Amino acid sequence: MACLSACRTPQYGYSLLTTLSESGISAEANTLYPLLRRLEKQGLLKAEWNTDEPRPRKYYTLTDSGAEIAQSLWNEWRELTTSLTALWKDSPQ
Fold first, then answer.
1. Three-state DSSP class for residue 11
2. Taking the model in full, what pTM does it have?
3. What are the beta bridge partners of residue 59?
4. pLDDT of res. 91
């Protein structure tokens, strides 16, 4: 969910690691890169090489299908958070 959310704007691997880290989500490169390849293979991300800069970078962005899945996951997350918050407030301390 975090990767899909972050890839709403184009991200290359290292920038994605930085974005996740700055958001408080720790991820290792050896976990992230296989995940990006799987999400691409599933059609949720598209990858394009940018060779305009001296160092070519592979940028990942959401596909339409990826955007739908990301929105669905976000909605489920919000519902779960709302339910857990209510449960926590209603439970005796």
1. strand
2. 0.85
3. 12, 48
4. 76
Q: Is residue 93's pLDDT more than 80? A: no
Query: CA distances (Å), 59 to each of 39, 54, 82, in order?
Result: 13, 15, 34
Domains (ranges, CATH) in the chain?
Answer: 2-90 (1.10.10.10)
Residue with tokens 């972050």: 6
Asked whether 90 and 41 are in contact (CB, 8 A), the reply is no
d(C-alpha 8, C-alpha 22), whole Å: 16
Sign, CA dihedral 25-9-80-42, equals: negative
Q: What does the block give as tokens for 86?
A: 């209510």
The pLDDT tens digits for 15-54 are: 999 999 999 999 999 999 999 999 999 999 999 999 988 9
